[in-house]
Design goal:
alpha+beta, 7-stranded mixed sheet
Amino acid sequence: MTTVEVRPCSSLEELREALAPINHYFGTDATLENAERFAHWIELERMVAARIDGEIVGGAGSMTFDVSVPGGATVPTAGVTVVGVLPSHRRRGVLNAMMQTLLDDARQRGDAIAALWASEGTIYGRYGFGPAARIGELTLARERTAFAEPFAPRGEFRLIDADEAAVAFPPLYEQVRAQRPGLISRDEAWWRTRRLADDPARRQGGPLTYALLTLDGAPAAYALYRVTQDWRAGASKGTVRIVEAMAPTPAAARELWRWLLDFDWTSQFVAGMLPLDHPLFQLLAEPRRMAFTVSEAICVRLVDVHAALAARTYSGDGEVVLDVSDEAAPWNTGRYRLGAGGVEHTDADVDISLGVAALGSVYLGGFGFADLARGLRLDELRPGAVDRADALFRTSAEPWCAEIF
């Protein structure tokens, strides 16, 4: 029987070795420079290395941040990332050992949930993660950018440098985060070394541009974008790729997107990582011209079911009793009565029985209990319980995670 030893990294060299499996699958080099860059975003002790006979054969880590949840609160979160096992050591329990270590560590640290982006969607359901949100991408031709209702722009835009963006952008992002579940917190290091960073060696397209909108003299929205130029027969066939656009108010969103879509010397606009209820569906005269495509986004796993459920708000005055099963985290298994008045453990009769992965799917509001029922992911034990649960979990905005971590 193979013995797998999992323990936290204690040096940059161990971090480099623990990152080697994921580097292998992404086709990149496991260099010390890459490890040093990654160390800006993760605490060394939250990156674990799996060893067999003393050799590091797997690695996995958890970033420390919080995630916004319905109602405007945030919950401490383990951002699971860079999970990989060398192909020479698959099917030996390495992944199981690492994931259990990360889960136990998250519980000890007081994380309410764990979240991740799954490169392989079939892997993480067995560890209690459920798809919790979706994202969209658009490709819009320059000649199809007319708005349904023309208006006279009144905002002022400035192109600024990364240092000014590091001061002006975070407060605007936090305003958006307070309104929409699923967005992660960003500390100063994250902003400067990740979101605003523009290493020429790592660019995909032109240099990153930072645009700030002011309305009535105050910062109102921002955008990050890249221009890729392509000249054909003497005419521009360029693309503007919008990396991120954040606007806390509908008025600011209209101003921001009108300005972005009026860009000269281009033939198309591309934007990804967008929420499903993006305002362009109402702003554009021909929204179908966006060729909006949808894919799954973050997956959520409730580490502490009671704490996670208590952190978010519920609609209406009804209640529902959930019977939650969780093999990997038996401390979560049990019955929970929840409603507008809060969450409590109970011995009351069960309305809905479901696994913790299914509960993760509905937690942020990206999917409903009716979706789970149609997918045979729950058992409705009392008639009408699914409808009551959906009424309670209803949110006014689609969950949105604006970046991959």
